[in-house]
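Pasting as-is:
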Amino acid sequence: MASLVGGAALGAVFGEVFNVLHDTVKCVGSDALMFKPILKSLQFNLNLLAPVVEEIRQLNKKLDHTEEETKSLKEDMRKARELMGNLGRQEWDYPLQAYYGRQLTELNEAIVMFFQGTLSLKMGRLSCLVPRPPDFTVWLDVPLEVLKTQLLKEKKQQLLLTAPGGCGKTALMKRLGHDQEIKGKFKGNIFFVPVSKTLNLMVIPAGVLLTHIGSSPILLILDDVWSGSEFRLEKFKFDIPKFNILVTSRTTLPEYSFTYDLKPLNDEDAMTLLRHFASLQDGSSHIPDDVIKKVLYQSFSSLGKEYSERLWRVPTALKVIGGLLRKNPVEAWCSIAENWSNSHYIFNSNSDLLDCLRKSLEFSDHEVIFKECFMDLGSFPEDQRIPVAALTDMWAELHKLDDVGNNAIHNLHKIATPNLANLVRKRKDAGEINKYYNEDYVTQHDLLRELAIFESCQGPERQRQRLIMDISGNTLPTPKVEVLVLNFQTKNYSLPEFMDNLKVLIITNYGFFPTELRNFQLLKSLPNLKTIRLEKVSILSLCKAPVLLKSLKKISLFMCKIGQAFQNFTIQVSDALSNLMEINIDYCNDLVELPAVLCDVICLKNLSITNCHQLSALPNGIGKLVNLEVFRLGSCTDLSELPESIRSFYKLCILDLSDCLCIRHLPKDIGELCNLKELHMKGCLNLSKGLPPSTTNLEQLKLVICDEEGLGFSNHDF
């Protein structure tokens, strides 16, 4: 039933199935008294959802969303209808009563989640929440008041904000979305969607939008719309009362009721902004005005007077320049800026700002690796979060960094310090022995991404280290590629052929629904493949055509459908994955039980299963993984216990059970984990009885992270 959640694209057939289910719930309420409370709640939630089903159907018709995209959703609704038909039975044994009670509860929770639109709010790349505004945006005070005045009017509007790239359009939208007066008017109905060069209709969560229709008005912010997308914007001019659209663009677009041109910085604001971004690392911002003025002039003077006066009024340029200066004493700033003024680069006429920003890539010879890593960021789509884990996989092969991620984080800090990217660290208790970076990500301004791509495209194509391109057909033009990053959005996809040298494969599907890889078996022909990372991919085909991946050392599955992947496997997994050392499974919500066949991968050293909320059991055979050093089960909220067989994990250094809400006790012989150094139990709310007595035998234990109030012990107990 859980898959009922998540479909914004609901069509006519869904509407029919919904109506049948709605009527059935009303009818069976009096015949199934033992389920009366949950049925009453379910009927209440269906009543809330019913008024918007027709609007959802009409909207998706307008957006060209197909019925095929909601096949699994409609099937769940039909199953729910069959479930309702069985509730009129008069005799119930306890197992059946528990089973149907659980099914009803799951259905009700799914309806609630759909109605609130929480899926779109939780999934970072599909999120419509307005991102947090930058800390320092003093130059945007006046534009903010102008836009607020317009939006606070009681009427339906279509507003346009224009400015060149890097001038603060997105920052202004973030401030606007968090303004208290704007939030007071629109309540929770403010939706922020980054659009960029390619307007992707699937990023608009239509169902979420319409489920918020009510007495409060709606504000839809479409950020960074490029010229040529005007005809597509017509699809979002809905006939909905109090529906406001605010579009930001680098160019003027026609047919808007109000247009505001964001002006460049004035002299005072430019100096204030550079002073802020260049504040010394000791926190001091007392920098003489004459130094700031000289730096402003000299930093851009190589571009000529016209471009110089224009570009030092661009906030993004000042942010990068300030980030470069703050690493040096103030006394050296003028000479550094003078060196920049003597630099000359050849760019096309539309690359003035890139010319300026290119100065930020002047690393010393022993730091050239940082420039290489910066250019690698251009391999990912615009306005998307870049997982640190994906960068770690790339850089372990491309730049021979450690595959744990410590060096990757160091390099990212070096890139983030001059404001070339933003590194977001999510988890604060990752430990010291083996860092955990699966929740961390990088964001980047689109201009800086353009800079990364521009730098990557220098020189003859056949001599480049990176190729960023659209692939048509199934053949790569460069068969010598070693790292392949595939970004797409489609229901089915075929891997390109002839990649004999491939060592790292990163596949990311940016659509709503998992992609079926048609020729997954092609991977067996890649003798050097070491690392696979799949995001939002269905690997059901794994059992249809078993794949021998003898060189594979690491596989990561994020938001993938893998529940059936290892069923009816016709070959020994120990043969197919004979050298596999690391498995990461994250947000794979159809995983109910870890496949027992994976327990035969005895070379495994790192097993991470996190945020798999349906995972309820681990096979007892997991004890065969005697070489395991890291075992993570964070946020597997339905997991109630660990098998006693884990006592054979003699090499285990890290056990992470963070936010495993249902775990009530640990194996009694956990003390036999003689090499355990870290134990993470924060959020294990049901571990109220503490730990087994054998934990006193954990002599190597150095770090315990827990909720001390709930468990009644602290680190010194060990």
